[in-house]
Amino acid sequence: MKKSQSNPFFTADVLTSLPGTEWLLSPSDDFLIETIETDTRKDLAGKMFLALRGEKFDGHNFIDKAIEKNPACICVEKVPCKEILDLLHKLNISCLKVSNSLKYYQQIASLYRQSFSQLQLIAVTGSSGKTTLKEIIGCILQKAFKNKVLITEGNTNNHIGVPQNLLKLKNRHKYAVIELGSNHPGEISTLTNIAKPNIAIISSIGPSHLEFFKTIENIAKEKASIFYGLKSGGIAFFPINTLKYDSIFKLTEQIKYFTFGTNQYSDTSENENRKYKQTTNSKILAKNADFTGKTIKNTLKKSVFAISKKNGKEFQVVTPLRGLHQASNIAAATAVAKYLKIQNKIIISALKNCVLPNMRMQVLEKQSITWINDAYNANPASMKAALDWLKNIKTSLKGNLFLVLGDMLELGENSIEIHKKILFYAKTNLFDCNIIPVGKIMQVAAKNMDLKVYKTAEEAGFFLKKELKRGDTVFLKASRGIHLEDIMKILF
After folding, report:
1. Is the model's pLDDT at 211 over the cut of 50?
2. Distance between CA 189 and CA 221 in Å, rounded?
3. What is the pLDDT of residues 296-354, one digit of tens each?
């Protein structure tokens, strides 16, 4: 093993410092590894391969493939057979046994994160917009601090993805923007305790994963748990309109925080119990936010937003980030940036070129047809925000607008009613557009609405192939499981 590949943190003593660990094959005295990998498709030379077990996979079934990649160490939950142990011994590959490979992965990643004592770790969660907000904050920090910033890749925000990202930390990193996701109660608390953030942010609270959370108040409680894992002296950021939830409001006396908002809030939880001591009017709340975003102009390919700090001067940003809801995200990112003492001119410059990952409001031109691919995911709040944006820019579009709206999954017992409301909202606000519902839930929700429903993205694709003309625009949005992006594969 080359010395340049090793990481001084990952010694044999550190790797066995956690409960339930034992060496099946002991390492050499000068043992060091570079990092920990869980995927045999990656380069494993000088690294530890950790065999994770899940509902649909078991890394122990790939130990032979891992050995071919010449790792320095194999970490297992199940003792390998004698033939594997003999081969490991012959190849001088050490073997560590742990009681629970996933828990070990999370604990060792947390230990590693804590070894970066000067690191400012920013954790981001929310019902919708968390990946977008993570990207915006990351974009600003990278502009300000160059390669000293680590950002969660894609949406690797779960119990495996969070430790995976933390283990990518290098000595050069002074900032990390880590996304935390949840679809079951208790997951944010677990992930926050792994990440140990200095700064924690909720992008939004709204009706997502209601199948498991039941009420929006429960969702608020789940998201608020990100703040209980803050390191000593840490700070919280959250939308000011979330103060109507008990779990958020109660925190205001326990932590240091800043609020952000926009005077264009679209409240999707109007029937929920609200307990804000002064007012529940979103526009009034936004005026009292520490940082406020306002949309000045929206077009198909760019937007202009005005950002202001309470009792401070307003400044404008021009950005390819589109949608009325981005005013809130940019206000949140600005709040974090100002807390880290980043100048306005850097924020403006960074947002000028900030681009989101694929299938998030991605605009493409194909054969004289405009595609707005927002098919990565959807919930009622993000769906409504997208429709509001389309209504706002509708007059600037040429040709016909086709709204391909797919099922929003994991919404629980009120799912059909929620879908009905979205379709009604689309018909009311974009009445001169072609609305194309896709999916089993949409099929039930669209009954008696005079809409032709398609069971799959493929069926909708063949319909569009016959209907689309030069100059038309197609908007795609649904939950990940609907795969609306497959429509484009059919046409091109």
Report:
1. yes
2. 10
3. 999 999 999 999 999 889 999 999 999 888 999 999 999 999 999 999 999 999 999 99
DSSP code per residue over 288-354: TSSEEEEEEEE-SS-EEEEEEETTS-EEEEEES--STTHHHHHHHHHHHHHHTT--HHHHHHHHHT-
Sheet holding 369-373, edge to edge: 362-366, 369-373, 473-477, 401-406, 434-438
Q: What SS3 state is found at 82?
A: helix
For 147-156, what is each residue's pLDDT tens digit?
999 999 988 9
Q: What is the pLDDT of residue 154?
A: 84
pLDDT tens across 376-401, in order?
999 999 999 999 999 999 999 989 99
Q: Helices 326-339 and 130-145 meet at what angle, rounded to 10?
A: 40
Q: Could you tell me the CA-to-CA distances from 260 to 241, 251, 275, 436 in Å, in that order?
A: 9, 16, 19, 35
Nearest to 413 by CA among 197, 256, 221, 210: 210
CA distance 184 to 192: 14
Helices and strands: H and E segment counts in the chain: 18, 19
Report the chain's mean pLDDT, rounded to a whole number.
92
* Whether 383 contacts 408, CB under 8 Å: yes
Identity of residue 429: N
Calculate the alpha carbon distances from 329 to 154, 340, 353 in Å. Answer: 17, 17, 16
User: What is the rounded CA–CA span in Å between residue 432 and residue 410?
Assistant: 30
For 326-340, the DSSP string reads HHHHHHHHHHHHHHT
Predicted TM-score (pTM) of the model is 0.92
**Is the alpha carbon torsion for 125, 184, 42, 484 positive or negative?**
negative
Instruction: Give CA angle at 265 (264, 270), nearest 5°.
Output: 140
Note whether 305 and 317 are within 8 A (CB): yes
Confidence of residue 5 (pLDDT cuts 50, 70, 90): low
CA–CA gap between residue 486 and residue 389 (Å, rounded): 24
25 membership: H or E segment, kind and range:
strand 21-25
User: Alpha-carbon torsion 435, 441, 443, 449, what sign?
Assistant: negative
Rounded to 10 deg, the angle between the 380-393 and 415-429 helix axes is 10
CA–CA separation, 425 and 477 (whole Å): 15
The dihedral of CA 236, 238, 243, 244: what is its sign? negative
The structure tokens 């840490």 sit at 234
HSE-CB for 311 with a 13 A CA cutoff: 0
DSSP letter, residue 386: H
- Report which residue type is found at 221: K
* Helical packing angle, 187-195 and 216-224, nearest 10°: 10
